[in-house]
Amino acid sequence: MKTYSNILICPVCNHKLNKRDHQYICENKHSFDVSKEGYTNLLLKSSKHSGDCKSMVEARRAFLECNHYKPLQDALIELLKEKQPQIIVDAGCGEGYYTNTIAEHLNSELYAFDMSKNALRYAAKRTNIVHYFLASIFQLPIHDHSVDVILNIFAPSATNEFKRILKKEGILIKVDPGSDHLWELKDLLYEKAYKNEEKQLNEFTVLDTKEIKYTLSLTNKELLNLYEMTPYSFKTAKSAKENLIMVNNFDVTIHFILYTYQG
Ligand SMILES: C[S@@+](CC[C@H](N)C(=O)[O-])C[C@H]1O[C@@H](n2cnc3c(N)ncnc32)[C@H](O)[C@@H]1O
Ligand SMILES: [Zn+2]
To answer: Ligand 1: which residues within 6 Å by Cβ?
Structure first.
């Protein structure tokens, strides 16, 4: 069973949220039910930004289930095992590919947040050892200075919120695409492709940087899933996708950068 250390606050009145069976409740009796899939909606009203859509989530899930990004999952587990944090927050957890496995390998309490109900449904259904919440990472319902590690993997960075919730010695582990990430895919889609810009956060101090780089050989189905899970699927012209239809055994560079930051 997952432990709950009362780090959450009520999104209505900011008082402590207690956990009772299948419900989170504050002293003013604002209550939030855990859904049948196992996540809890702490968003007060539906936002214009509802996170990733169903097709994107499904494509990412199918791609990640082939373990193409397992080297990143392994590196995160290794890094976290060194730190032995008590409380981890995954900010922008998606469908929990990293979150659920990290929870299985560590004794930490994991609290994971995303704006996409589609993603959270998948994430929460597959585990009962992670606390999953529908909430914006720009307004996290978490006490000040209560978190040891924030994970922020290919998701937007809410630097002010991250600083507010981190303990004094807490760290932020942020994963960004490196300059060469998916270069061959971009080269196929765009007339003139550009490398990704590698940019550190100014608001934090970098403690450590780790690069992971390798080549994947993808079947056509895997390539199409990769395309659908990236922003290229809505940024490129329809005709660009046609360039992918006949391609098989496609070699693509995977390039991640893991930054460890302190506030
Ligand atoms: C590229 S996905 C990465 C998901 C996951 N970390 C992974 O690597 O598999 C980015 C995620 O950030 C979520 N997201 C975007 N804006 C958000 C916000 N303001 N609050 C919470 N989640 C957000 C999206 O719904 C999506 O699940
Ligand atoms: Zn309340």
So the answer is: 49, 51-52, 60, 92-94, 97, 113-116, 119, 136-138, 153-156
CATH number of 95's domain:
3.40.50.150
Pair 218, 179: CB distance under 8 Å: no
What's the maximum distance between 2 C-alpha atoms anywhere in the chain? Answer: 60
Query: Which ligand 1 atom minimizes the distance to the CA of 119?
Result: 27
Separation CA 173–CA 185 (nearest Å): 27
CA-CA distance, 75 to 175, in Å (whole number)? 11
Number of folded domains in the chain? 1
Determine the pLDDT at residue 240: 80
Residue 72 counted as domain residue? yes
Ligand 2: centre distance to CA 11 (Å): 7
Let me know if residue 11 belongs to a domain: no
The DSSP element (H or E) to which 164 belongs, if any, is: helix 159-165
| Mean pLDDT split into 10-residue runs, the chain, 263 residues | 88 96 96 97 76 87 96 98 97 97 97 95 95 97 98 97 97 98 94 93 97 97 94 80 88 98 93
Asked if residue 248 is part of any domain, the answer here is yes
User: For residue 140, what are its two tokens?
Assistant: 């996290």
The answer as to whether 26 is a domain residue is no
Instruction: Give residue 224's domain range.
Output: 37-262
- How much is the pLDDT for 49? 62
